[in-house]
Design goal:
It contains 18 helices and no strands. By secondary structure, the chain is mainly alpha-helical. It has two domains: 54 residues, no CATH class; 220 residues, Orthogonal Bundle (MetI-like fold), CATH 1.10.3720. The model has no long low-confidence stretch (mean pLDDT 82).
Length: 359
């Protein structure tokens, strides 16, 4: 056996260094692919797309004219399970409607008797001049005197057009929906801020709720609660609850960790930490979520009128149905004016905690 010396080690290392490498090793060792840049990634994606396009063209050219291209190109009809899925969903919905009738009827009665009904009656009971005064004073104290004048002008336009009562009905549905969203969304956002697992679970759910077309929410609401104001409120709540959950979660997570650790060093409980430290510091972000929830709830008024909800949406829907652009425009611009008033006042509430001096 030949003894191992430094010379033999050098010869072996030289032999290994000049040994032929495979193609895959050369690709892996290539620096642009080992540490790809943005340009190299784009080039690789375009290259793969070009190769796939060429393959598809070759497949189409290989099919004789007038013949079935086969499973390689056309999706087989026997693999289509759409109607089975639709039937399964319809069966589940029918089961819920039959077995949850007592529950849905209870929600309908509570909502109309104790929440939406009294609020709507109260807003319609107020004299028109009192609405001007109280809304103008609120806008002056929360926003500015200039905006208070704008609010009076916008309310005057709706009054002259005879839409003040419809605006009150729209406001009742919007505020009721926003209130329900805050009641349920605030605790969910707080729990999600304290649990990363729940946050990871509800994030795609909230994404789906915000990207799904608004008309989809009307279908289960009508099936469960029939026509009227209750399904409108339920559909509006589902559509507008994601912002309050997201921003509550974000606001609490963004509280300075040093402040949280300092509070814990004083021996505060979890409830005291949440109530006296995290929520006060996250309040501007939470109120911004309330603002977005109110705006999204107001955006549903036209769609809610399609299932029996009263308000300015009925004016727009009637104008569209009768091909009366003037009626639709007046109702639509009144919704815009109401949105401006609610948006600026709710934003003013969100900014007020930032203006308070530090104690």
């Amino acid at each position: 056996m030949q003894p191992v010396t430094e010379d033999t080690r050098d010869e072996n290392s030289d032999a290994n260094s000049i040994s032929p490498r495979t193609f895959w090793q050369r690709v892996i060792d290539n620096r642009p692919f080992a540490h790809p840049t943005a340009k190299s990634k784009i080039f690789l994606v375009l290259l793969i797309a070009a190769v796939l396009v060429i393959v598809v063209l070759l497949l189409y050219n290989a099919v004789p004219p007038g013949e079935d291209p086969g499973v390689v190109i056309d999706y087989p009809e026997e693999w289509d399970f759409r109607y089975e899925t639709i039937k399964w969903i319809d069966d589940r919905v029918d089961w819920v409607v039959i077995n949850w009738e007592t529950f849905t009827e209870g929600i309908n009665k509570v909502l109309l008797r104790y929440l939406l009904g009294p609020l709507e009656d109260f807003l319609l009971w107020l004299p028109w001049w009192f609405v001007f005064v109280i809304t103008g004073l609120l806008a002056w104290r929360i926003v500015s005197a200039r905006f208070a004048g704008i609010v009076v002008f916008l309310l005057g336009f709706m009054t002259i057009m005879g839409l003040l009562d419809l605006a009150a009905q729209t406001l009742a549905i919007t505020l009721t929906s926003a209130f329900i969203c805050v009641i349920f969304g605030l605790p969910i956002g707080i729990i999600a801020a304290r649990s990363s697992r729940l946050d990871a679970f509800i994030r795609p759910v909230l994404d789906m709720m915000q990207t799904m077309p608004s008309f989809v929410y009307l279908i289960p609401a009508v099936m469960l609660f029939s026509m009227g104001a209750t399904p409108a409120v339920m559909a509006t709540c589902i559509y507008s609850i994601p912002p309050i959950i997201r921003l509550t979660n974000l606001g609490i997570r963004q509280v300075d960790t040093q402040v949280v650790e300092a509070a814990r060093s004083f021996g505060v409980t979890a409830w005291q930490l949440l109530r006296k430290v995290q929520i006060p510091l996250a309040l501007p972000t939470i109120l911004a979520g309330v603002n977005q929830t109110i705006m999204m709830a107001l955006a549903m008024v036209v769609l809610a009128s399609m299932i029996g909800a009263a308000g300015l949406g009925v004016e727009v829907l009637t104008g569209l149905g009768r091909i009366n652009p003037g009626q639709a425009f007046v109702g639509g611009i009144s919704i815009v004016f109401l949105a401006i008033i609610l948006d600026r006042i709710s934003q003013g509430f969100a900014k007020r905690p930032e203006k308070r001096p530090a104690t």
